[in-house]
């Protein structure tokens, strides 16, 4: 009976359900492979997190390391579990990284030495490499030090106690390396074993008696079809299979996940104060108490002084931040949505000018100034477009305090436009008046057209500080220019004359030009009616007027509820100050404002003491142009066949897509460095289009067609998105805008000027040296005859003495 049962166990013919056993074996192997891949990723993730986390450090100190030239160099050694990272300094910057040693293959031993200190050796037993190929932040080229050995390192500590401490720490780090090892069968689900038959689970016990009756062919038949032949695959085939399986899993995840992305919660702003039109809303009578504050302020300043570091009285404060104030220009951004689809470039320019002028008529009552943002302060909101069912997102951050610089980014990819820029706020005092200057250029981009509109801002002028009535006006010349089409607008905001008391304030005049030719002129008042007059026909008609109907068409703004805001968001940050200003409690407003400003000063002192620089959270500098650019900017034109929704989560504006799609960060050849990111499900990939990584081609067609931005690896035709076809050919011609070319050549121009100045200095010094040498030669020539006479006299005396 026993022999019969054992023959059933070992003979395939005796298996009751052969197909089910094969299927369960394959499923088990598939699950094991899946667990193997996930555990391999987990181990790599743990090692990477250990390497990048600055808090995970076993020991860090200076050690001397002997190089291949038998000389010693002093390096900062950071010991982590399983890793030893070498730096040139304690700052641990990428440029100071020397190398990373993998401890899991190393052994450590004490090394005798005649010199002072304690020596120990870290080496590979089989004389193989102990170095990792990359650094903690992906560095591939280490700092310049003397060459280090390939398979070992010899260290010298300052004392014996320090050296033994390092050996104990290295032993601990080597043991911690084993914590990263995971068993392939550890996390196998219990449900798998239940699917297997009882015979497949039992371990057979072979005896000499049965092994004699089983020959080689019987063994082959027994294991035939059990899936064990896959173990004979080479490593390359296994890696290929794993990569294909992973790609298939990612594709399934991308195409089968229909869950909408998680968005930041926004609510509609119910109340909005627009102010009155005309001069009455721009003047304010100051009571006696506040006049005293103004006089005290005037005593502290002098004409021409910059007021950026002067604390202004709270009675003139508007209860919102300057970052919130900048969002006033986008309540009529639906005008830009209409401008993108216009075929005529002149019509597009007029639409852009109309949108620009639509942002000025909202003004608070009296003379009011928004809060100066605190460094690191942020603000976000969006406007909903009912006609196109799209959203215009607005993000802003205070990236510097002295000087005060505010960076902002506005995007509506679905309607086809982006706006970005930064503003340096400056103020000047002139005695009876002061000016608030907004220095900076905003760039409006029509994505499908590849057009950039460069826009400047007027300054705010306040007069009547000492004599007269306090009045706020806008002044200065601004420009809106498109380098691609050569169309531009020049608008001048005129201040009210001092003697002409009957003329209304807020007057503007302007010209619409192409090249040097004027096509039309503008005239009117920026808070009332503005008329445009065509130069060719002489006809004049209404260009813009903020009527009650226009005001009712303002887009609804949505902001984050204050209980969902982060600590550094404007509304939450200034809540106590705003509550006090609204309730007219100026004493409490001053106290709360002082608390915030004092905290900012203390944080600045701490950074200065630690020699740390402030790093903006949302913006970074373009290394070529020097402009502040949103870190997650996407300049790719909207593709209706692929793009589903543009949304914001955690200050990151993304696009929910059907397929994985790269982010295009720029429409010009000037781009940022590449920083790849992961694919968040069906969400868009944050990937830079750098010239070093992938060539970008900008193909410009006629004015009525859309510009196609092509990527060499993955791209879609943006001028005809409905067809959904890919562009196979790219034009080698890339057109540069005049401004981009000037900015790119500016460093070379400065270098050339410095070189010319150095050459002129060297030439001046050479001329002075040559003149000095000529004077010396002339002096030596004048003394030559005297030298000859003296020599002749000495010779004559010597001859006479000789013959005597």
TrEMBL record:
For this protein, the record's InterPro entries field holds: OSBP_sf (IPR037239), Oxysterol-bd (IPR000648), Oxysterol-bd_CS (IPR018494), PH-like_dom_sf (IPR011993), PH_domain (IPR001849)
- The membrane spanning regions, by residue number, are 784-803
A cellular component term, taken from the record's GO annotations: membrane
Indicate yes or no for the key word Cell inner membrane.
no
SUPFAM superfamilies with a match to the protein in the record = Oxysterol-binding protein-like (SSF144000), PH domain-like (SSF50729)
Protein origin, superkingdom: Eukaryota
Q: Which residues form the PH domain?
A: 56-175
Skewed-composition ranges (Basic and acidic residues): 213-243, 710-723
- Give one GO biological process term: lipid transport
Coiled-coil zones: none
Residues annotated as region Disordered?
1-37, 213-262, 700-732
Q: Record's Pfam families?
A: Oxysterol_BP, PH
Ordered alphabetically, the record's keywords are: Lipid transport, Lipid-binding, Membrane, Transmembrane, Transmembrane helix, Transport
- Key word Iron present in the record? no
Molecular-function GO terms, alphabetical: cholesterol binding
Q: Which family does it belong to?
A: Belongs to the OSBP family.
Name of the molecule in the record: Oxysterol-binding protein
Source organism (scientific name): Crassostrea virginica (Eastern oyster)
């Amino acid at each position: 009976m026993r022999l019969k049962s054992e023959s059933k166990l070992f003979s395939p013919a005796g298996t009751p359900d052969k197909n089910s056993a094969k299927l369960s074996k394959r499923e088990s192997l598939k699950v094991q492979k899946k667990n193997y891949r996930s555990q391999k990723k987990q181990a790599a993730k743990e090692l990477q997190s250990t390497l990048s986390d600055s808090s995970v450090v076993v020991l860090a100190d200076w050690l001397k390391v002997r190089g291949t030239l038998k000389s010693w160099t002093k390096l900062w050694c950071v010991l982590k579990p399983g890793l030893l990272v070498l730096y040139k300094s304690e700052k641990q910057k990428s440029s100071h990284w020397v190398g990373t040693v993998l401890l899991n293959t190393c052994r450590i031993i004490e090394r005798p030495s005649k010199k002072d200190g304690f020596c120990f050796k870290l080496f590979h037993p089989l004389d193989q490499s102990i170095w990792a190929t990359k650094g903690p932040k992906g560095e591939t080229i280490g700092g310049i030090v003397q060459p280090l050995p390939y398979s070992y390192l010899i260290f010298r500590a300052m004392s014996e106690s320090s050296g033994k401490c390092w050996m104990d720490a290295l032993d601990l780090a080597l043991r911690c390396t084993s914590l990263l090892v995971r068993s392939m069968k550890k996390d196998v689900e219990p449900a798998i074993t239940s699917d297997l038959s009882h015979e497949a689970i039992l371990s057979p016990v072979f005896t000499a008696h049965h092994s004699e009756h089983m020959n080689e062919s019987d063994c082959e038949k027994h294991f035939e079809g059990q899936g064990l032949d896959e173990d004979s695959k080479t490593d390359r085939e296994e890696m290929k299979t794993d990569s294909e399986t992973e790609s298939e899993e990612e594709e399934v995840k991308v195409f089968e996940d229909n869950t909408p992305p998680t968005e930041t919660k926004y609510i509609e702003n119910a109340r909005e104060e627009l102010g009155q039109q005309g001069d009455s809303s721009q003047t304010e009578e100051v009571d006696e108490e506040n006049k005293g504050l103004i006089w005290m302020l005037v005593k502290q300043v002098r004409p021409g002084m910059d007021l950026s570091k002067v604390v202004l009285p709270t009675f003139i404060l508007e209860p919102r931040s300057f970052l919130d104030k900048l969002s006033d220009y986008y309540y009529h951004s639906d005008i830009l949505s209409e401008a993108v689809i216009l075929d005529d470039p002149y019509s597009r320019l007029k639409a852009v000018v109309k949108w620009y002028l639509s942002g000025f008529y909202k003004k608070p009552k009296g003379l009011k100034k928004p809060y100066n943002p605190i460094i690191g302060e942020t603000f976000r909101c969006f406007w909903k477009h009912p006609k196109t069912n799209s959203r215009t997102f607005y993000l802003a951050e205070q990236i510097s305090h002295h000087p005060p610089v505010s960076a902002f980014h506005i995007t509506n990819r679905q309607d086809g436009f982006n706006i970005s820029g930064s503003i340096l706020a400056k103020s000047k005092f002139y005695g009876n008046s002061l000016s608030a200057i907004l220095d900076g250029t905003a760039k409006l981009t029509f994505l499908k057209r590849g057009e950039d509109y460069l826009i400047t801002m007027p300054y705010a002028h306040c007069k009547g500080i000492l004599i007269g009535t306090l009045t706020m006006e806008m002044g200065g010349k601004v420009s809106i220019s498109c380098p691609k089409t050569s169309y531009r607008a020049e608008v001048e905001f005129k201040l009210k004359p001092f003697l002409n008391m009957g003329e209304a304030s807020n007057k503007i005049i302007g010209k619409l030009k192409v090249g040097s030719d004027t096509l039309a002129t503008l005239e009117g008042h920026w808070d009332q009616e503005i008329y445009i007059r065509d130069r060719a026909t002489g006809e004049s008609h209404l260009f813009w007027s903020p009527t009650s109907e226009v005001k009712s068409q303002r887009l609804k703004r949505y902001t984050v509820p204050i209980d969902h805001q982060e600590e550094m968001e404007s509304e939450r940050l200034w809540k106590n100050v705003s509550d006090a200003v609204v309730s007219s409690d100026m004493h409490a407003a001053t106290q709360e404002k002082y608390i915030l400003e004092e905290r900012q000063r203390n944080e600045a002192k701490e950074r200065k003491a630690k020699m740390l620089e402030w790093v903006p959270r949302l913006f970074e500098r373009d290394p070529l142009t020097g402009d502040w650019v949103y870190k997650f900017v996407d300049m790719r034109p909207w593709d209706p066949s692929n793009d589903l929704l543009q949304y914001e989560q955690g200050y990151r504006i993304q696009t929910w897509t059907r397929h994985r799609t790269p982010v295009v960060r720029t429409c010009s050849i000037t781009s940022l460095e590449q920083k790849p990111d992961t694919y968040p499900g069906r969400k868009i990939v944050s990937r830079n289009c750098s010239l070093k990584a992938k060539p970008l081609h900008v193909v410009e067609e006629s004015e009525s067609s859309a510009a196609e931005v092509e990527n060499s690896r993955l791209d879609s035709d943006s001028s005809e998105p409905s067809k959904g076809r890919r562009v196979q050919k790219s034009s080698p011609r890339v057109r540069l805008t005049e401004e981009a070319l000037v900015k790119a050549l500016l460093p070379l121009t400065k270098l050339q000027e410095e070189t010319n100045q150095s050459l002129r200095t060297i030439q001046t010094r050479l001329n002075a040296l040559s003149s000095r040498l000529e004077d010396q030669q002339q002096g030596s020539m004048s003394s030559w005859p005297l030298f000859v006479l003296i020599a002749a006299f000495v010779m004559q005396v010597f001859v006479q003495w000789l013959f005597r």
